[in-house]
Every structure is written in structure tokens, then in C-alpha cells.
Amino acid sequence: WDETHFGKMGSYYINRTFFFDVHPPLGKMLIGLAGYLSGYDGTFPFQKPGDRYEQHNYMGMRGVRRYRTFCAFLGSCLVPFAYLTVLELSKSLPAALLTAFILIFDTGCITLSQYILLDPILMFFLMGAVLSMVKCNSCADRPFSALWWFWMSMTGMNLAGAMGVKFVGLFVVLLVGLNTIYDLWDLLGDLSLSLVMFGKHLLARVLCLILLPLALYMAMFAVHFTVLNKSGPGDGFFSSAFQSQLIGNNLHNVSVPE
Description:
258 residues; mainly alpha; membrane; transmembrane helix; PMT-like; glycosyltransferase
């Protein structure tokens, strides 16, 4: 069912047809990009669940199958992400290997990763954010080093990715936020640390964990509205002034008073 839903939205991006959905745009944009790069032309109808892709032309069917390759790749990344996270937290190779094998043989994870769904994309960014946070914590003894900046920036980018796919990404934002508050509270209690240095730590976290994710999140919507410039099923959810900017809409290029 959901493959029909999100596959159709991938086609909307390829055809630049405006639509409305309850989820943020990043996941659908990545699905559309995967189809576009693999040669899919966006003409498969996705009318109902169970329709065979073999009824479509060869290039379109090949593109749809490449969707699965894209989602499966992101789903397969969960295994090394989990392995590295547990290894960093526990310093135990058996524990990390056990975690990796549990995910490798998890039927739900395998199933979710082989279809055109938002779930493997969401889980990729969720676990990427957790891994980046853990790696950044491990660099606490080397603040403001290149590696410290890298992992903190990666944490912010993954937070934006998780929020950009589904709003349930707020939970990993909460996790990173609580970790950051604990970290700053610990730094504030360090009497050997000057207030100026504490201010630098605070500004670094504001930059990487608040401003960077917000900028990336807004950029996703900027790309979304730039790409979808043709009239489609989502027109009616927006104002007449907005509809006048969509090619093919009855109000296109009509002067609409504010």
C-alpha cells in the first residue's frame, strides 16, 4: 500500500507535479531522485497496490526496481551504524557483532528495506544521528578539533535528515538535545573551564545542532517548491496567490490581490 503511495510521489517529483502530503519532503525527493538517476521516466501510474511493474515499459520498470536498490542500500547501512554505535559505547567487540547479526537477520528490517518506503530512509538518518552523537561524545577530550567539528556537524545534518523525512524524527532530536544539555551542564560544573571557553562550547552546539539543521530543513522545502512548479493534486491546499505560480493552473499568471 505505502509503496504505491510514495512511488507515486516520486513520480510527481520527476514530472514536477505539485502535490500535498503530511510528511516533510526529503524522503520523497530522494525516492524521486533515485528513480530519475536510474532512468525511470515517472509514467508508471501507481494506481493500486499489487500492480505489476512488468506492465510498464522497460526503462520505467528498471527505474522502479532501482528504487528498491536505493532503499535497500540505506537499510543495509543500519547494520554498520549499529555495530559502530555499540562498539563505541561498550568497547566490546562481541556485543557489537551480536548487535550487527541481530539486525542482519531481523525480518522486519529486511522487509522494510526492500520496498519504496520512507522507513529505511528515516531509520538511516535516525541511526546516523545516534552514531554521530556517540562519536562526538568520544571526542570530548579533544574539543574544537577537526574530528570533533566533523561529528558534531554530521549530527546536525542527520537531525535535519530525520526531521525532513518524517516528524517522528523529533524523538532523535530530543535524544540529542538531552545529551547536549547533560554535556553542557557537565562543562559548566568544570571549574577549570573559563566562562569564555564555555561560551565557545555553547555557540558551537547552537551552530551545529540548531542553526545547521534548521537551515538544511528549510532548504529542503525551498527545493521542494522550486521543483514542483506544475499544477497537480495538491493545488487546493494552498492560496490562490500560490496557485497562480503553478504552470497549468487556471490561475496561472493571474494577478491576485494580497
